[in-house]
Amino acid sequence: GDSVTQMEGPVTLSEEAFLTINCTYTATGYPSLFWYVQYPGEGLQLLLKATKADDKGSNKGFEATYRKETTSFHLEKGSVQVSDSAVYFCALRITGGGNKLTFGTGTQLKVEL
Amino acid sequence: KAGVTQTPRYLIKTRGQQVTLSCSPISGHRSVSWYQQTPGQGLQFLFEYFSETQRNKGNFPGRFSGRQFSNSRSEMNVSTLELGDSALYLCASSLQVDAADTQYFGPGTRLTVL
Fold first, then answer.
1. By the 8 A CB rule, do B37 and B109 touch?
2. Residue among B48, B90, B102 minimizing CB distance to A98
């Protein structure tokens, strides 16, 4: 079946540090890939997406590149802020498989001053 | 434009009872999906509706059911509640059923089963 594997958290960084959260996937068909963010007490917000190989999604300084050869979609940000503290979820959706999202377990990010 | 709304936001029930949760999608959106979020199992897909038809269903027991109305609003029902049903239930809406279409999530309903 389809699955998404994310690095374990929590990840604790100092403000302005570089962030990488690893995400790899296994898909039965051709996937679109997503990163969602969840702030405390809230639902999920789409952070960025990529729908085909080699596409780069980017938003608010975050970016991720769809790498079909390594089945990866790692999230990066050059300089994190305290306000980036949240839980980040990598997800996939199979083309032709409706809107069902398969999520990773989530990675909690804590950014300290 | 208003976002996805879910009611109620918090709910406390006892084992054996049933519960109905409601989701109002963004205006014009015809697809609604439901997810269960727990610390142990993470985010799991429950079901998906489009134009009042269930298009996809996750691996949950028959106690979990849902429906969608002609105005695209959706409800999910859980009967004979168990302690393990305690979770955050999230609803997501999108315009169509399309891999490139963005899904927007509501704030969720926090269900506690005592």
1. no
2. B48
